[in-house]
From TrEMBL:
Required co-factors: pyridoxal 5'-phosphate
One term of GO molecular function: 1,4-alpha-oligoglucan phosphorylase activity
Function: Allosteric enzyme that catalyzes the rate-limiting step in glycogen catabolism, the phosphorolytic cleavage of glycogen to produce glucose-1-phosphate, and plays a central role in maintaining cellular and organismal glucose homeostasis.
Name the record gives this protein: Alpha-1,4 glucan phosphorylase
PANTHER family: GLYCOGEN PHOSPHORYLASE, GLYCOGEN PHOSPHORYLASE, LIVER FORM
Magnesium among keywords: no
Organism this protein belongs to: Paenibacillus enshidis
UniProt KW keywords: Carbohydrate metabolism, Glycosyltransferase, Pyridoxal phosphate, Transferase
EC number: 2.4.1.1
Length: 817
């Protein structure tokens, strides 16, 4: 369409004038974004069609990644990068008087996810397309994504994230591909030719309407599809369904209640809200997604026993577990299959990733709710459970404890993890440590029963977004130093190791970091009016706010530094800027209090002339993917300080590593594997191990109160939370925080790990004083980060779970019109 800058400029001008009917000179940044976005989407249309044609003709096996969350962020910059026209477009726009970064800034983040789990889905989509796999996303088109966070007087305030307000240039609505989804009703059965036939009467029918977004692979990779579903009323207002005079208003009300299914993303990935609407969302996605997959499958006229050879369905945590009973329902009730055959096909098609062992995050649904809302699906779950328990009884006669632990339905609740394990052929954890914990503890009984189903797939991040797009100068330096091979194979970044002591290479790395820090400082000044020193250490903790992630440990250490500086104003300390970014689930009171505490400490520290030149604290509003892309390249220190055993993997840790930050962290999640690569010198490890945490739980031998009495510093900090002083505006202001530590015995061992954390932070202060030493350690981290590129992760999923091969074809010569 345009192969050089002049062609691009010409096409752009033409598009703009044609589409908007205004002269180029009158266009606003927002217009430019829209025009450019539309051009790019049209531009990829051809390869989108070619990819689909190639898949079809080759009878390719497809994998469908089902996820209630896709945290995509902005797409324009990454699409341009993957298409290989980023620089051309930047230059072309520049000549027309527009700065590409400003245009990119016009795009709303697609924030259809909470945190790591949703971002993982997004990184996987990028890797699947770039490596040439037939892999697609299946999700919900929430009208409102994760809430927009404002900080008012130090408190989090949530605003609706109206991300579609200005339209979405990337999506294509496909009303002709809509499918019906049914809720409620009553199941009736009858016999026909010796077979039981089930039919649901009086069910409520709604439409699921798909919107497709192209997933553009890197440089001639495939163009796959993210299909997100929207709920629409299936009632025709003209049919007189509501016979009363108020019929029309009833109709409007009914439509609204239907549309509510795809209205909001639940802003909580760790607490089950027990909301029927959430269950509706889950079934809506599973049913719509499956129907559209099977419709495509049916066109190939293959027998159904071939389904596992042609289709892999992956569920991202237990949220889409209903694909298992729903696929059973379709195979039995619609395709007329017997139970055993349907079960064999289903359990060879579905695979499952577990993302957490936090007990409060293990999904359970009340039986009465599922039975009423999804009567036929409930019958099938009941039958799966009945057969599974019968098998257990035969295998472990008399072992009632085991039965109670493993049953899918237990005490009026349906345990989705158990259903997911029983109904899938692969169960994976997301880091080596996490998978071991699953096998040896949380899912021990299942692992004994199905040892071959369990495997590890350590999470990854796409280096195209998190290095090449977020930190282009660093990527350019790598190209100058190593050539371009690492772009296709990021493990080749180990080629940087010989340069770790090279002073001119170190200088380049330092200059780039400094540049990124200046950019972030500019943003912080303009957005939040706080002036920070770009020469100070940038110490960053950005991630969802949760007790186990221990932002509290970080802020308590900052309070302690403040105390030290007040006691001893001459204290020798490298200036440090502590940067936080975190959203708290709206109903998570303790998390919100920690946000308030951070902001109070920031207020005290930043205004105190005795300390503000050595420490600054910034809480950045509305942490999101696009903000992460600005923050992470500017970080010197990456805070990965979760209680050991609680963070399944973490992916933030990998993004920081790839951008040359040193990690201070616990032996948790993927930190363990990072540490294995870089060693003690290049990663600052502290705190309890998983074994020690478990030992405390087992013996009950931990006393937070005793700890706080033993350590003078802790006692002082605790008092500063509940007495009036520098960090509070009234007595008992942080009562909930205080009580969580003392009365509830510090579930996450903040007090226990405090001393080790403070010592390690002091070590960081020392190392930073020697720039060459510091930079050398940072380079070792950058060099080993390639192992955590999601391309590597996705190759493992493809080879070991999905058994799919990349489409190694140059699709550009295919005729599509
Ligand atoms: C990567 C990422 C996360 C996950 O961060 P963790 O530190 O692994 O919890 C959350 N939110 C956003 C916006 C991200 O980009």
């Amino acid at each position: 369409m345009f192969s050089n800058k002049e062609e691009f400029k010409k096409a752009f001008r033409l598009h703009l004038v044609r589409r908007l009917g205004i002269p180029l000179a009158e266009a606003k940044a927002d217009d430019v974004y829209k025009i450019l976005g539309n051009m790019i989407r049209e531009y990829v249309g051809k390869n989108w069609a070619r990819t689909n044609l190639a898949y079809k003709e080759r009878g390719e096996k497809h994998v469908y990644y089902f996820s209630l969350e896709f945290l995509m962020g902005r797409l324009l910059g990454n699409n341009l990068l993957n298409l290989g026209i980023l620089n051309m477009v930047r230059e072309g726009l520049g000549e027309l008087g527009w700065e590409l970064e400003a245009i990119e800034g016009q795009e709303s983040d697609a924030g259809l996810g909470n945190g790591g789990l949703g971002r993982l889905a997004a990184c996987f989509m990028d890797s699947l397309a770039s490596l040439g796999y037939a892999g697609h996303g299946c999700g919900i088109r929430y009208k409102y994504g994760l809430f927009e966070q404002r900080i008012v007087d130090g408190n989090q305030v949530e605003l609706p994230d109206d991300w579609l307000q200005k339209g979405n240039v990337w999506e294509v609505r496909r009303p002709e591909k809509r499918v019906e989804v049914f809720f409620w009703g009553r199941v009736e059965s009858r016999e026909e030719n010796g077979r039981l036939i089930f039919e649901t009467k009086n069910a409520e029918k709604i439409w699921a309407v798909p919107y497709d977004i192209p997933l553009i692979g890197y440089r001639g990779g495939n163009v796959n599809t993210l299909r997100i579903w929207s709920a629409e009323s299936a009632l025709d207002p003209l049919t007189g369904y509501f016979p009363s005079g108020e019929g029309y208003y009833k109709y409007l009300e009914f439509s609204r209640s239907i549309e509510s299914i795809s209205e909001f993303l639940y802003p909580d990935d760790s607490n089950e809200e027990g909301k029927r609407l959430r269950l509706k969302q889950q079934y809506f996605l599973c049913s719509a997604g499956l129907q559209s997959i099977l419709r495509t499958y049916d066109k190939q006229r293959l027998a159904y026993d071939q389904l596992p050879a042609k289709v892999a369905i992956h569920i991202n945590d237990t949220h889409p577990t209903l694909v298992i009973p729903e696929l059973m329902r379709i195979l039995i009730d619609v395709k007329g299959m017997g139970w055993d055959e349907a079960w064999d096909i289903t359990s060879r098609t579905v695979s499952y990733t577990n993302h957490t062992i936090l007990s409060e995050a293990l999904e359970k649904w009340p039986v009465p709710m599922v039975r009423e809302l999804l009567p036929r699906v409930y019958m099938i779950i009941e039958e799966i459970n009945k057969r599974f328990c019968a098998m257990l009884l035969e295998r472990y006669p008399g072992d009632e404890r085991r039965m109670a632990e493993m049953a899918i339905i237990y005490g009026d609740q349906i345990r989705m993890a158990n259903l997911a394990i029983v109904g899938s052929y692969s169960i994976n954890g997301v880091a080596a440590l996490h998978t071991e914990i699953l096998k040896q503890r949380e899912m021990k009984a299942f692992h004994e029963l199905y040892p071959d189903r369990f495997n590890n797939k350590t999470n990854g991040i796409t280096h195209r977004r998190w290095l090449m797009h977020a930190n282009p100068e660093l990527a350019e330096l790598y190209k100058e130093t190593l050539g371009e091979e690492w772009v296709r194979d990021p493990r080749k970044l180990t080629g940087l190791l010989p340069y770790r002591q090279d002073s001119s290479f170190q200088q380049r790395v330092q200059d780039i970091k400094q540049d990124n820090k200046r950019k972030l400082s500019g943003y912080i000044l303009s957005k939040q009016g706080i002036s920070i020193d770009p020469l100070s250490i940038f110490d960053v903790q950005v991630k969802r706010l949760h007790g186990y992630k221990r932002q509290l440990l970080n802020i308590m250490h900052i309070m302690h530094l403040y105390n030290e500086l007040k006691d001893n104003p001459a204290k020798d300390m490298t200036p440090r800027t502590f940067i936080f970014g975190a959203k708290a689930a709206p109903g998570y009171y303790l998390a919100k209090q920690i946000i308030k505490l951070i902001n109070n400490v920031a207020g005290a520290v930043n205004h105190d002339p005795q300390v503000r030149d050595r420490i600054k604290v910034v809480f950045l509003e509305n942490y999101s993917v696009s903000l992460a892309e600005l923050i992470i390249p500017a970080a010197d220190v990456s805070e990965q300080i979760s209680t050991a055993g609680k963070e399944a993997s973490g992916t933030g840790n990998m993004k920081f590593m790839m951008n040359g930050a040193l990690t201070i962290g616990t032996m948790d999640g993927a930190n363990v594997e990072m540490h294995e690569m870089v060693g003690d010198r290049n990663m600052l490890i502290f705190g309890l191990s998983v074994e020690q945490v478990l030992e405390y739980y087992r013996t009950g031998g931990y006393s937070a109160r005793r700890k706080s009495e033993e350590d003078e510093r802790l006692h002082r900090l605790l008092m500063q939370m509940i007495q009036t002083g520098p960090f509070t505006s009234h007595e008992w202001e942080f009562e909930a925080v205080y009580r969580s530590l003392i009365d509830h015995n510090d579930e996450y061992f903040v007090l226990e790990d405090f001393a080790a954390y403070a010592d390690t932070q002091a070590q960081i202060d020392q190392v930073y004083r020697n720039p060459s030493d510091w930079t050398g350690r940072a380079i070792v981290n950058m060099a080993h980060a390639g192992k955590f590129a999601s391309d590597c992760t996705i190759r493992q999923y493809a080879n070991e779970i999905w058994r799919i091969r990349p489409l190694n074809e140059d699709i550009s010569s295919r005729q599509v019109y």
